[in-house]
Specification:
By secondary structure, this protein is α+β, with helices and mostly antiparallel strands. The protein folds into two domains: 5-152, Four Helix Bundle (Hemerythrin (Met), subunit A) (Up-down Bundle); 162-247, Nonspecific Lipid-transfer Protein, Chain A. It has ten helices and four strands. It has helices spanning 5-25, 43-62, 64-75, 78-87, 94-113, 130-152, 162-171, 173-178, 216-223, 239-247, and strands at 190-194, 200-203, 211-215, 235-237. Strand 1 (190-194) and strand 2 form a beta hairpin. Helix 1 runs parallel beside helix 6 and helix 6 (130-152) packs across helix 7 (162-171).
């Protein structure tokens, strides 16, 4: 199958992100009933959620009409649908849960590779191209994987695959404001982040009055709402940029509850 080098690269990163989490949850002695930082969610819930969203993504790619019908039911009460999807793995044998998740990951890679260039894929949020969908799957895998790593006291090593998460975090700036019922800032922001490799990642005009700086890891922890802003080293210049750091979310749906400060 002929796919663009750019899509091939992001699909490779998606495969690697899934494999890293797979190695963590497949290790001997991992108890899928272990509670994670997400309120009410165990490791089984986290893997169940990833499986549910992977399987939805496959339908969105391969059968848009079927996904449209499913989407209508889901978006009517997205929080409830998310809980039901996550709970589908609870109480099932761990090996079965892992195998279903693995199968879904493989199907996502194949489905995204088969999306014709230029096609917009319908999703729970705005439609997106195959590359952006793959980046969104990386974001989900990384964020929920972090919850699992936190629960196990393991910690995941930050890699430059975070570029995909950071990119989504920047691109969803306007969504972060609208989902809070706030006016979208009219001027672009400047975002400057230091990657895990030490590279510098930049978005927006150099002379922008509103600016955000810090490490890519901290920015990704913020936009996926895995850490409270007070526990991160991000800096904001300008009132709108400062407001953004308090409401940022790179995921679709209503505002998330976020996490309490480490000392709170």
């Amino acid at each position: 199958m002929n796919i663009s080098p750019a899509l091939a690269a992001v699909l490779a990163d998606l495969a690697d992100e899934g494999a890293e989490l797979d190695a963590l949850v497949s290790a001997p002695g991992v108890d899928f009933t272990t509670a994670t930082p997400a309120l009410g969610w165990t490791i089984a819930h986290q893997i169940g959620h990833l499986t549910w969203t992977d399987e939805l993504a496959v339908v969105a790619c391969r059968d848009p009409a079927a996904f449209g019908a499913t989407r209508s039911a889901i978006v009517g009460d997205l929080p409830a649908a998310i809980e039901i999807g996550a709970a589908s793995a609870v109480g099932r044998p761990t090996a079965e849960v892992i195998e279903r998740w693995r199968a879904g990951r493989g199907d996502v890679l194949e489905a995204l590779a088969g999306v014709p260039s230029g096609t917009r894929i319908s999703w729970l949020g705005p439609p997106m191209g195959a590359g952006t969908m793959a980046s969104a799957r990386i974001m989900e895998t990384w964020a929920h994987g972090l919850d699992i790593a936190d629960a196990l006291g393991a910690g995941l090593v930050a890699t430059d695959r975070l570029r995909h998460v950071a990119e989504l975090g920047v691109r969803t700036r306007d969504h972060s404001f609208t989902t809070q019922g706030l006016a979208v800032p009219g001027a672009p922001f400047r975002v400057e982040l230091t990657a895990p490799s030490g590279r510098r990642w930049e978005w927006g005009p150099q002379d922008a009055a509103e600016r955000v700086t810090g490490t890519a890891l901290d920015f990704c922890l913020l936009v996926t709402q895995r850490r409270h802003r007070d526990d991160l080293g991000l800096s904001a210049v300008g009132p709108a940029a400062d407001r953004w750091l308090s409401i940022a979310q790179a995921f679709a749906g209503p505002p998330g509850a976020g996490r309490a400060p480490a000392g709170g």
